[in-house]
């Protein structure tokens, strides 16, 4: 069914229907699937989530995003991103207790903001469904399973919820990991979470965590890792293969390389702030041939580069990308990554071209 809209409202909700809508963000048509069938079961858990999520790291943050400054205008844009995402059927939202940490000057908690956005949306439409994923910060002075439950309860308080869908360890601890895994299992048994996962886990840590949870009859649902066309460490370090073997879903963070894969940053127009030190003009120069090819492929499908690189991840079947959106336009563009598929040849060609580019440095914790 094709529905052409010229107004700013281009995502319409319709259960069990496919709608093709004109995305203002890109001038392209975006197909958004709204059916339950379009959802993916997260690992061995019973939790079903949209094939694509949205990341809320930048909401309220002043330590990496927002040019170290958070204000009401940015808050309204983040709220519009949330609303647009949910309206498009992208209902998995990823946050963390450390996003928008009060330790950073002028920051506002991402969890608090998300809780408010959910409440305001639900006040208008009680039927909307949002799957919240949040994370436990394995700080060295936090020890024991009880620390997980106590941090989770603080997160629930900020979110204004009695439970969350997915609770994840944000990174492996320097020590105390067995206690953290027990804490995750306790959280499931206490009905505080539906599913549990880890982030930035190596293959060995992943297998250990899986086995420990299995002894308590609880599946390890997901491993959230840095994964994009130009950052394919999970394909190289055994994590992706282990996830496939054990039935663990990969949640791909930084899936559009923090904007570098969208094509909007060029050697003459690099990103500002901390990202500018990672995605330098030299790096962006080397990236350009790949961006050009992504654009060409996208034109054949009437899709933007952002939609192509997200589709590249979605095509890996066991991967749920969670791109971060700062406004409604960005969130809506993500939805156009769904409802179509790159060919196997295009997937291989893009991987092969991307392998010519030396990846940027990732989050060192994934090598712990
Ligand atoms: N578990 C972990 O350790 C970990 C680590 C990192 C991230 N994460 C999670 O993963 C999520 C996503 O990762 P990320 O935020 O690092 O990177 P990302 O999703 O690759 O990039 C997000 C950034 O790209 C730009 N962008 C978004 N949509 C765009 C569009 N349609 N066109 C052009 N530019 C666009 C925006 O920044 P500008 O508009 O400023 O360019 C946005 O903030 C985070 O929000 C967080 O939830 C988890």
From TrEMBL:
Superkingdom of source: Eukaryota
Q: Which residues form the NADP-dependent oxidoreductase domain?
A: 51-353
Q: Does the keyword Oxidoreductase apply?
A: yes
Gene3D superfamilies reported for this sequence: NADP-dependent oxidoreductase domain
Q: Which UniProt keywords apply?
A: NADP, Oxidoreductase
Q: Which GO terms describe its molecular function?
A: oxidoreductase activity
Q: Which Pfam families does UniProt cross-reference here?
A: Aldo_ket_red (PF00248)
For this protein, the record's CDD domains field holds: AKR_AtPLR-like
Its cellular-component GO annotations read: cytoplasm
| Protein name according to UniProt | NADP-dependent oxidoreductase domain-containing protein
Q: Which organism is it from?
A: Fraxinus pennsylvanica
The organism's lineage is: Eukaryota, Viridiplantae, Streptophyta, Embryophyta, Tracheophyta
